[in-house]
Amino acid sequence: MSDPLDAFLDLVAKRLAATGDQVRVKRDQLASLDAKIKAEVSQMGKKTGMSVEGADAKIAELEHLHAHSSMGNAEERQFMRDLETLRKTKKVIKSNNERQSVVDDLKEQRSGVNDELRVLRDAEKDLQLGYRRVKLAKSSGVDASLIIETPIEVPEDRMGAIIGKGGSNLRNFESTYNVYIDTERQGGKLTIMGTQASISMASAAIVELANTVSEELELKDVVLTTLLIDKAALINELQEEHGVKIDVSRAKSVCKVTGHVTQLPEVVACITALDCVAR
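The chain above was modelled as a monomer; its predicted structure follows.
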C-alpha cells in the first residue's frame, strides 16, 4: 500500500511544476510587453510641450495675421516657413498622442499581467512551503505541526561565506541538519524550517561559520622560518591555545589565520610581534 504522504508530495510537486510553467509564461508576456513599450517610445518624436489644439490656435493666429497684413517677399517667405514648422509640429504631436495611447494600453496590460504573476508567485511560495513542511515531517518522523520556521540574522558581509559557492554551504547545512533554509536578497536574514531541535543545531552551526573569519599577514622569511621550525611547533601551539587554523605559504611569504572573530586578534598580535622583532 502506498504511503499517503508520498502521494501528497507527488501531487504538490506536480502542482508546483504546473505553477512554475505558468510563472514562466507570464514572465515571457511581461518581456514581450516591455519590448513593445520600448519600441513605441523610441518612435516618438521630440516632446514640444504643446497640444494639438494649441498648434491649431497658433496656425489660425498666423494665418489670420497673414490674411490681414501686407507682407513683403522676405516676410512672406518667413510666414511660409513658420506655417510649415507649425504643421510639422502638429503632425508630431498627433503621432506622439497616438503612440502614447498605445503605450498606455500596453502598460495597462503589463499591470494586469504583473498582478497575475504576483498571484502565481504567492501560490508557488505556498506550495513550496507546504511541500517542504510535509517532506521534513516525513524525513524527521514527526507530525507536520511540529515543523516550524525560525528567522535568524548574521552579519551581512558574512552572507557569502554562509551561502557558499553556488549555494554549496547552504545545501550542506540543509542535508546535515535536515532543514530548509531561505535567504533574503538583501541584508543578513535567513529563515530556517525544521523541527525545533534541528533548527537549534543548524542555527548554531551557521552562527559559528558567520563568526569564523580569516586574515592574511605578509611576513619576512625569518618569521616564516620561526613559525615552521621544529615541525611547526609554534603554529601547533598557537592553534591549540586559541582554537584557530594557521596556514603558511613560503612561496607567497604569507601566513593565513582562520578562526573565531573574538580569537583572531590575539593570534594575529602574537605573529605580528614576531615580525616586528625580526625587523
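The longest strand covers residues 212-218.
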